[in-house]
Write a structure and sequence with these properties.
The chain is α+β, with helices and mostly antiparallel strands and 495 residues long. The chain folds into two domains: 201 residues, Exo-inulinase, domain 1 (Jelly Rolls); 255 residues, Rossmann fold (3-Layer(aba) Sandwich), CATH 3.40.50. The protein contains ten helices and 24 strands. Strands 15-14-16-17-24-23-22-19-20 form a nine-stranded mixed sheet, with helices on both faces. Strands 1, 3, 4, 6, 9, 10, 11 and 13 form an eight-stranded antiparallel sheet that branches. Helix 6 links the parallel strand 16 and strand 17. The longest helix is centred in the last third of the chain and has 16 residues. The protein is elongated, with a radius of gyration of 25 Å.
């Protein structure tokens, strides 16, 4: 089995996400300002010690590009405490940086500003201390966390009350406190010791550095932080995402070399973008699914198949103790229902067991929303909304409508392949004081990149964590009604 160590969570995300995984819609998160919206280059930015932006910077289709040289950019507004999120890509051999606490003086921006390094990880002489996402020359970041030149990385800077964090591709790689003894010692032993204004101003501009290299930025957004702001906390909840297969291995959970799988990459990205949870991934439950390690998590998610090698006593403890505790949740995704077929406590918890998929991955289907108020279903639309989609759809045995709240189902009237039974797609339930959600969709990679699907997962996880309210009272009448509709739809045209 291959596992990526949990001791360095989200460390090996070397091929995070392609351009289509920019997670549309998060620039509009509450409180965030889109710094690259239409017209933002002139409205939000200007040159350092200049009235307008240098011609070398171009903003097209949401991507800010530096071609050649012409000077750096700074935000027109200064910021004190903030959560800055962005994506960056650097040309081979390239060098740039995102600076903060910048004050305009006769000296360059880096004489006052602290730098989040943007650099080709194969740059000659690069080290962790001056590599990608490092707090340049002061606090190191593991350079192997960065993606190769020419590929997009996700970055994040959180600054609050002098405490700063640098994030790269979902991992917090730097933590520092400006003005602390450790900080002062590091600065005193560096070139910054002679720069009297370095990092001295709590309020300053954000700057994008011109280092003579071609560099790209996109999805740049900032949220000024205030006391008690939920997004200010980087001590977010944690999810353990288990993608181990003891049977059929789905392509979307298949890893290549040391890289995370497609679904793992997306789930981690959603955690980072939502600001609500962090995601660690494992395909080695024998090592990582233990009471000692699970004590560190608030949600466990399965995209699994077959009988996983978890000792029975651990399974019993997980179902009877861990999951039943308030604040804990279980998320089943797609093939999670194709796991532990003969272990009743598991399928009793999740709500049913895989019993085939007449609707294969290439099948066009239509879904129907039953409860559009629940955070997991709200992104799909209000009750009654029909959603055309292409994905593999499971049917179930051991289905227990009296124990679950169905949020979405296969619309048998509108779907071409008709069967005379109800096929739920998304449901939730209370489990002791814990919570359970199962999302049957997720076989196809393009489903994982669907913004509505992503928002549904985020809403569901927030509900599991108790961050959003949503009903879980069983609604067996929905199953009864859908069963009748399915029988009638399947009988049309038959003698």
């Amino acid at each position: 089995m291959t596992t990526l160590p949990l001791e360095r969570p989200i460390r090996a995300m070397l091929t995070l996400v392609c351009a289509c995984l920019a997670v549309p819609g998060f620039a509009d998160e509450a409180g965030f300002i889109d710094l690259l919206a239409d017209g933002a280059l002139s409205e939000q930015w200007r040159g350092y010690r200049a009235e307008s932006s240098p011609d070398a910077w171009r903003l097209e289709d949401g991507v800010l590009t530096l071609e050649g040289s012409g000077g750096g950019l700074i935000t027109k507004e200064p910021y004190r405490d903030f959560d800055l999120r962005f994506e960056w890509k650097i040309a081979p051999g390239g060098n740039s940086g995102v600076l903060y606490r910048v004050v305009e003086t006769e000296e360059p921006a880096y004489h006052t500003g602290v730098e989040y390094q943007v650099l080709d990880p194969e740059f000659p002489g690069v080290t962790d201390l001056n590599g990608p996402a490092s707090l340049y020359a002061l606090y190191p970041a593991p350079k192997e966390t960065a993606k190769p030149a020419g590929e997009w990385n996700t970055g994040r800077i959180v600054s609050r009350d002098g405490k700063v964090e640098h994030w790269l591709n979902g991992e917090r790689v730097v933590s520092a406190e400006i003005g602390s003894d450790d900080w002062n010692e590091r600065v005193g032993g560096s070139k910054f010791a002679d720069w009297k204004g370095f990092a001295k101003n709590a309020t300053g501009h954000i700057a994008l550095q011109d280092h003579g290299s071609r560099v790209w930025y996109r999805n740049v957004r900032i949220k000024p932080l205030a006391a008690g702001d939920e997004a200010a906390s980087t001590d977010s909840k944690r999810m353990l995402f288990v993608t181990q297969s003891s049977g059929f291995r789905h392509p979307t959970v298949t890893r290549k070399s040391s890289d995370y799988s497609h679904s793992e990459q997306v789930m981690q990205q959603l955690g980072v973008e939502s600001g609500a949870f962090r995601v660690d991934c494992t395909q080695d439950v024998a090592t990582d699914f233990t009471p000692e390690l699970l004590a560190n998590y608030d949600v466990v998610a399965f995209y699994t198949t077959g009988d996983l090698p978890i000792p029975e006593e651990t399974r019993e403890w997980f179902l009877n103790t861990w999951l039943a505790e308030e604040g804990h949740g279980f998320l089943g995704v797609h093939a999670a229902a194709d796991t532990y077929h003969n272990y009743e406590p598991y399928w009793d918890m999740i709500g049913g067991t895989f019993a085939g998929h007449p609707w294969t991955a290439g099948t066009d289907v239509v879904l129907r929303v039953h409860d559009g108020d629940h955070p997991a279903a709200k992104p799909w639309g209000p009750a009654g909304t029909r959603i055309p989609l292409k994905d593999e759809i499971y049917q179930f045995k051991h289905w227990q409508p009296e124990k679950v709240r169905v949020l979405m189902s296969l619309d048998m009237e509108a779907t071409e392949i008709k069967k005379p039974y109800h096929v739920p797609v998304l449901w939730v339930k209370d489990y002791g004081k814990g919570r359970v959600m199962h999302m049957s969709l997720g076989h196809r990679e393009d489903v994982w990149t669907n913004p509505t699907y992503q928002a549904s997962l985020i809403g569901g996880v927030r509900w599991l964590l108790g961050l959003e309210e949503g009903g879980a009272a069983p609604n067996p009448e929905v199953s009864d009604e859908q069963q009748k509709i399915a029988v009638a739809a399947a009988s049309v045209g038959k003698p």
